[in-house]
Amino acid sequence: MRVHRVNAEMCECRMDGDRACLCPIRGIINVIGRKWAICVISALMSAESMRFTELKAALEGISSRSLSNVLSTLEREGLVERRYYPEIPPRVEYSLTDMGRSLGDALRPLLEWIRAHDLEGGDTI
Q1: Among 118, 124, 115, 123, which residue's Cα sits nearest to residue 42?
Q2: pLDDT, tens digit (0-9, with 9 covering 90-100), for 25-52
Q3: pTM for this structure?
Q4: What domains can you pick out in the chain, each with its CATH number?
């Protein structure tokens, strides 16, 4: 039996044959399961970097507060980098870190599966 530490919770997996322990997935699900998180990652995958207003425009329907919250969470988790440029007026740009980009690459098959099954509206699931 292996014990994994996941977001301050203990996980006790019994490794039976080919079954893998899925407990470590909980941590990333808590991050990308947040409303808009996958959308933000997807938008940033398509650009080198984006300003807040560009992201807001790309994500139709997101409020400024929601965007700010999800960006803070993704930055805290090491998936998004926030760059501040001390200019007049000040400029802030967001981009994916290497880890964020690799997560985006891992999410790409899921997004393709959603499109292939005509689930983009989300009403079917």
Answers
A1: 115
A2: 777 888 888 889 999 999 999 999 999 9
A3: 0.76
A4: 1-27 (no CATH), 33-116 (1.10.10.10)
